[in-house]
Specification:
alpha/beta; globular; 11-stranded mixed β-sheet; Spore Coat Polysaccharide Biosynthesis Protein SpsA, Chain A
């Protein structure tokens, strides 16, 4: 059975200044999502589930529906601040979305096979999809998950700070911990992040980081639901609290419920955090077209 790809695309792109998921980057208006689906299809994925806001549905279906349905199954799941979760009678009121792990949870009814999770605005490269598809097809089990790891120095933006999952690994290349760090940027020749006290903490340039490319067995949904109910109840009065995937993964590892393999990608990551990133993303895609990695017209 072919694995499923979940594309997290419910964010509005406040730092970018618009709905960046639909912004054209390729020579014929192709989006980063188009290239992600193209890479996923040729790696062996058979279905894509877009996690979006309900208000995005028409725009997404117009942009992707017809051409993607020609090559693989397409479904939608909707992430709203009040999306119901079985076992939780009432979702606490708030205006900010609940985060990436909640976004995966709302796609539960659309996913029946081992699956990968990606961000809509990140270009991961075809090597990452190949390695993840092979893992999901051959190794994914209820206690065996995976993530794609990149070197921190290859994942920064020249135009502002970024958030990354900083990883520590065991000797067998299994994940030990992953900690979400925000406000990561270059300071002179160093890479730092700001802690809660606004202090600069140095990070190793070659540190392994998560770019939110995860691989899971469907067993993860029970754990997601359990932890979200606890998280929501504990954060009733904290409207800024976010239910991140690394929170779930860390607890699973700590409780000994699963191992997480770190699949090291040889590709250069790039993505759309800021509007100013667009020119570099377009140039990077054109370089890959010139090198023969992608056709000039992706969906011709």
């Amino acid at each position: 059975m072919k694995p499923t790809l979940i594309v997290l695309a419910a964010g509005m792109g406040s730092r970018y200044g618009g709905l960046k998921q639909l912004d054209g980057m390729g020579p014929n208006g192709e989006t980063i999502i188009d290239y992600s689906i193209y890479d996923a299809k040729r790696a062996g994925f058979g279905k894509v589930v877009f996690v979006i806001r309900a208000s995005f549905k028409d725009a997404f279906d117009q942009q992707f529906g017809e051409k993607i349905r020609a090559i693989m199954d397409v479904e939608y799941a909707y992430q709203e601040v009040d999306s119901p979760v079985e076992g939780l009678d009432k979702i606490p009121e708030r205006t900010k979305p609940w985060g990436t792990a909640h976004a995966v949870l709302v796609a539960r009814n659309q996913v029946t096979t081992p699956f990968a999770v990606i961000n809509a605005d990140d270009f991961y490269g075809q090597d990452a999809y190949k390695k993840m598809a092979n893992f999901l097809i051959e190794q994914a089990e209820s206690n065996q998950y995976a993530m794609v790891g990149y070197q921190l120095q290859k994942t920064l933006s020249k135009h502002g700070s970024v958030s990354r999952g900083i990883c520590k690994m065991k000797e067998d290349r299994k994940l030990k911990t992953v900690v979400e760090r925000t406000k990561i940027f270059k300071l002179n020749r160093n890479i730092v992040f700001k802690n809660e006290k606004e202090e600069h903490i140095y990070l190793a340039p070659n540190a392994a980081v998560s770019m939110n490319f995860w691989g899971f067995h469907t067993s993860i949904f029970d754990e997601l639901a359990k932890q979200f109910i606890e998280f929501a109840q504990q954060n009733v009065d904290n409207p800024k609290a976010e239910f991140f995937i690394p929170l779930i993964v860390n607890k699973i590892i700590l409780d000994g419920k699963a191992d997480v393999s770190v699949l090291e990608s040889t590709d250069q990551w790039f993505g759309m955090t800021y509007q100013e990133d667009k020119a570099q993303v377009q140039a990077s895609i054109q370089e890959r077209i010139n090198a023969g990695n992608y056709p000039e017209k992706l969906w011709s």
